[in-house]
User: Fold this.
Amino acid sequence: MTKQKSADKNLQNVAKDLDANPANAHNAQQIQQKVNDHRHQDALNHEGTNS
Assistant:
């Protein structure tokens, strides 16, 4: 098993997301939409790569 030289990137992103405090409901919705957009784009980028 290889030793990791830096912190796990996924955990860094989760910690960053948890630190985000939306000012109001509109801001919270925009943050959530951005996350959804990234997930959707990621799904499109990986579509058809399973063989």
In short: The mean pLDDT is 83. The helical segments are 9-19, 25-46.
